[in-house]
Input
Amino acid sequence: MNLKQIEKYIKEYGKDVYSFCIYLTRNKEDADDLYQQTFLVAIEKNELDDDRNPKAYLVSIAANIWNNHKRKYLWRKKKADIVYLQGKDMEQIADEAETAYEELVRRDKIELVRKLVYELPDKMKVVILMRYMEELSVDEIAASLNIPSGTVKSRIHQAKERLRERLIKDDKR
Amino acid sequence: MIKDDMDILLEEALKPDISPSRETNQKILNKGAKCENHRRLVFVLARVVAIFIAVICVGSMGVYAASRLIKKAFVSEHAISTGPLDDDDDAAIAADEEAVQIKEVSHEDGDETVKWITKDVQILNGNITNTYYTYEEYATAVSDAGLDNWFSKTYENTASATYVVTEAEDFKEYCVDSCILYHDGSFFVSESVIRGNVSGDERHSIKIENKNNERKYTAASGYEFTLVDEITEDEAGRLVTTVVMVAYDDYFGYISFNNLTEKEIHSILDTFVIR
Output
């Protein structure tokens, strides 16, 4: 791959891949490392191709590197977790038509969902991120992680149920 | 698929909205660019007569044993080889590369029990099987492959390290390729061993384009390197790559250097060792 091609893929998919890395690692330093390593592996393998769903390919590399090297990342002294729930991130989600109160409630809910996803066990978190953040199909996720489609569906279902229970519990408080 | 309330909530909450810094992206571009243009073709010519020179041990630390057979480098118009090339062979090396048909067979991801990160199997032209293993570091790749580590020091900052096992009908080749970042540039190591129905008289050649500035350097180990510059020009500008061939016993390979001064190249070659 030449420099121009690398730049193109970073421009098109950098945000998707980086957001994915942030949620996996929960740490900016590790997310930077994982993100860089993902692209370097993709460059080395020289298989990034517009005809082969580059986003799915990059995300699967990130997931697999993370899965194999969790121990290496986790032993590092942790810096503060990403402050991802505040400020500008929330502004993108706000709907101008809502009242101030409804907007506040909604923002709280979004913030809570993010926090709950952040805390999911890795096996559930990876499939949820691939499905809802990266918009991959069940079959694409199964192929990326080398697991059966049934397992993907089951993990998505379990994760959603877990999130739903926590949200209901939070509503009752 | 019908979406429920949780699907909609998750889509909204998890929309990607965190961008990497410009500095982080630039690091990828720098590393990717530094490892471009390093890979080159290696040709093996079967010959009856092999020309080589045995180097006598000079008796100091870090020098290879007298039993190692070092092969001298011969530079022709389009190649560096382990023996002199006639014009026909040199022209054949310079000719356009033929397209290779590649069939992907399998992909695996490593776990805690292995040192490799990924393993891929491909079939080339229907009759050659390549198994690729990727690693984090050059030293890990050569150790796992059972090949010589060519350096007396550990270089941090490996951009890529791949071990490839090539199986053809009557031979097997074991090769480690690695790109290592060094100061503002990089160097690339490619080392391989062929086993099987090989006579040992084969001549190995590395393709060079637009060669320039051939010179010698005797490293700290006593190994005499022949350095040749390859000049290439494209839309990115003018690129000078310095190449040295390495050949001893049944090992063959090269080290190429990008964006490094002559002093930096010498300092790397001074860490070259045949154990």
